[in-house]
Structure formats: structure tokens, C-alpha cells
Amino acid sequence: MIPNVSCETTSFRFECEMVEPLVALLPTVFDLHAGQRARLLREQPIGSVIPDLLFGIWSGELPRYRGLNGISRHILAWLSTRRIASSEEELRDDLLLSQHAADSAVLTLKRVGAISKRDSGEVELRPEFDVSDSIRLIAIEMKLKRWREALAQAVEYRKFADETYVVLDGIQVQMTDEIRNAFSANGIGLFFQRGGALEREISAKQLTPAPSVDRLFALGKLEDSGPYCLA
Questions:
Q1: What's the burial of 147, exposed, middle or buried (CB within 10 Å: 0-12/13-18/19+)?
Q2: Are 200 and 191 in contact (CB under 8 A)?
Q3: Reading across the β-sheet that carries 163-169, which strands appear in turn?
Q4: Residues 10, 92: Cα–Cα separation, whole Å
Q5: What is the pTM (predicted TM-score) of this model?
Q6: What is the rounded distance in angstroms from the CA atom of residue 4 to the CA atom of residue 16?
């Protein structure tokens, strides 16, 4: 028996019914300002997880991440923290890459303008590709009432998202100290959704994660920019 579940009739029979009203509210809930660009993606695999919704907000143009393979993304993530490598050999050694794999990835990154090589042999990340901190990436998990399962999934999304939220049916689930403490301790935000209304019970802790292949992969999915839209 789950003590926090109400006996009232639920406003949603299935989680999929929560999507449309939630989507309509996201631009205002997350303060989308004039001049900003945003994109909403549904059920996109990011590494080993699949958030229900992935909402990105940014200004300007996004770098061309989409055509890069895993090795290229590993090199970009490495350079995003180090900024510069003394040589291509350092990239190979630190990332445990074969010479063929490293050479191919470096050529691809040079072709798309992501990196440049100095006369001294140093390899550096071009500033326009170091944009991880300028993009707000929000991952959302929806459940009718299984908040523990949703919380566990949302914690995994913190590896690539700046903010992570869970949305629960606010008629089926009532706030308890156990729920509040569990979400707050993990930095996960919580919304209660009641029909077309959305109430933020707990704000997510905002923390841009370190550059990683999964984060670059998620940002690459936002590359087809444009006005607010649902992919």
C-alpha cells in the first residue's frame, strides 16, 4: 500500500495523456524569453536512458554536433575540460584510442571547424564549439504515481541535464515529507499536474554537468533549431 496515493478519481488514465497539456505550459514555466530558441524532444535515447521530455533553451546558433561519432564526441568532451592538448598523441594516450580512430576523428573535427591545430602541434577547441554552459538543458520524467521509480530515473538524467524534473498526477499523489525530502536531497524538481494546470512543488537544483559524450549527444539533438517545436 502506498500511503501518499489519493483515493480520488485520477485526472489521467495513462501517462501519455499528460504530455499535451504539459507541452503547452513548458515555455512559460521555464521562462522562455524573446530572442531565445528552444526545442522539445520526446523519448530520445541519451546513452543508456530515455527521458520522457528533453527541453533545450539557448540563444544564437548551435554548433554542428549531429554528424559526429562517439570518438569525436569523446575528444570534444575532453577538450571542453582541458581546452588544449599538447599534441594528437596526448589525445590518443589519454583517451586510449588507436591511431586510426584518433586520426579519423581529428580529421572530422577539423572539417566541421570544431578544433584547430597550431604550428607547434597543439590541438585546441574552437570557442564556438565550447557552448555547454550557454545552453539550458532540462530533462523531464512523467509518471502517474510511481514517484520512487521516476526519481531514480531522474537522478540518472543529472549526468547530462542542467535541471531535472519529475511530473506526477497531482490528484493521484499528495505531497508528503518523505517525497519532499527524497527529491530535495537529490536536487530533483517536482511538478504536480492536474489536468491543464501545473504546480511546481520543488525547484530543481541548477547545476551544469561536466562536459561528457552524453551531454554532447543531447545537445546535438537540438541542432535543428528554430521556433519552439515538438520533434
A1: buried
A2: yes
A3: 37-42, 53-58, 136-143, 163-169, 189-194, 197-202
A4: 55
A5: 0.79
A6: 22
Q: Per residue in 83-136, pLDDT tens?
A: 788 888 888 888 899 999 988 999 999 988 889 888 888 999 888 787 666 789
- CATH 3.30.450.180 is right for the domain spanning 70-129: no
Catalogue the long-range contacts made by 10-15 (C-beta closer than 8 Å, 24 or more residues apart): 10/144, 10/169, 10/171, 10/172, 11/169, 11/170, 11/171, 11/193, 11/194, 11/195, 12/144, 12/169, 12/172, 12/193, 14/144, 15/52, 15/142, 15/143, 15/144
Instruction: Look at residues 187, 202, 180, 217 and name the one whose alpha carbon lies nearest to residue 73.
Output: 217
CATH class of 15-62+133-220: alpha beta
Residue 220 half-sphere exposure, CB side, CA atoms within 13 Å? Answer: 20
**pLDDT by residue (tens digit) across 171-203?**
999 999 999 999 999 999 999 998 888 999 999
What is the Cα gyration radius of the chain?
20
- Each domain of the chain, given as residue ranges in start order, spans 15-62+133-220, 70-129
Cell matching residue 220: 546535438
Distance CA 100, CA 1 (A): 57
